[in-house]
Amino acid sequence: MSDWLHKLLAVIDHNRYLALSILGIALCAGLLFTTQGCQSTTLPVMGTEPVTRAEFDIQSIETRATLEAKRQATISEIEAFNQRIEVGYADLDAKDQIRRDIIDTASIIVTQAGQGAFNPLSLIPLGILTAGSILGIGAGLDNRKKDAEIVKRDAVIAEISKTSPS
Q1: Is there a domain that residue 124 lies in?
Q2: Best exposed site among 37, 45, 52, 77 by fewest CB in 10 Å?
Q3: H-type helices in the chain, by residue range?
Q4: Residue 91 falls within a domain, yes or no?
Q5: For residues 29 and 35, what is the distance between their CA atoms, to the nearest angstrom?
Q6: Using N-to-C axis directions, what is the helix angle for 16-35 and 3-14, rounded to 10°?
């Protein structure tokens, strides 16, 4: 060994506990300084790789926006579904009413013919009544369709006003 190395090892051997404590302090200081630069991580909102606070904030905002958009789309689908149900029932009711009117008219004609009191002129008020019922039902269905279009248009306008900067 060289002379300076031999002297250093002799000093360390003579003051071994002091040397170990200096070495321990140096390791603790190094560990302290290196861990101060580490950022805390956690499991992400979506995915498997750990993320930092800033990445977690971004992911939570993006995920919340995505879920809100899906929620709005689902609400729109439900509203459209409910409108289709209403229109379907209204259509069925209108067709049932027309069928009832036709059956009622036919039963009146058959009854009058069976009694021998059949008067062709008595069909005119029944025809007017039936035509009026059909027109009334058609107008009601048309109004429901127009109301549904107005609601849909208002929803689109409201959605556009939410997304456009004010």
Answers
A1: yes
A2: 37
A3: 3-14, 16-35, 53-115, 123-163
A4: yes
A5: 10
A6: 90
Tell me which DSSP letter residue 122 carries. G
Query: 83 burial class (0-12, 13-18, 19+ CB within 10 angstroms)?
Result: middle
Mean of the per-residue pLDDT values of the chain:
81
Residues in the chain, how many? 166
Q: Which domain holds residue 100?
A: 77-163
72 within some domain: no
Classify 148 as helix, strand or coil. helix
DSSP state of 31: H
- Residue tagged 């000093």 (tokens): 11
Distance in angstroms (rounded) separating the CA atoms of residues 143 and 115: 42
Centroid of chain to Cα 31: 48
pLDDT tens profile 109-132:
778 777 776 666 666 776 777 777
Q: What is the pLDDT of residues 10-46, one digit of tens each?
A: 888 888 888 888 888 888 888 777 776 677 788 888 8
| Threshold 0.70, pTM exceeds | no
CA nearest 141: which of 100, 92, 108, 104?
Answer: 92
Give me the mean pLDDT over the 153-158 stretch. Answer: 83
Indicate the SS3 state at residue 67.
helix
Q: Same domain, yes or no, for 96 and 150?
A: yes
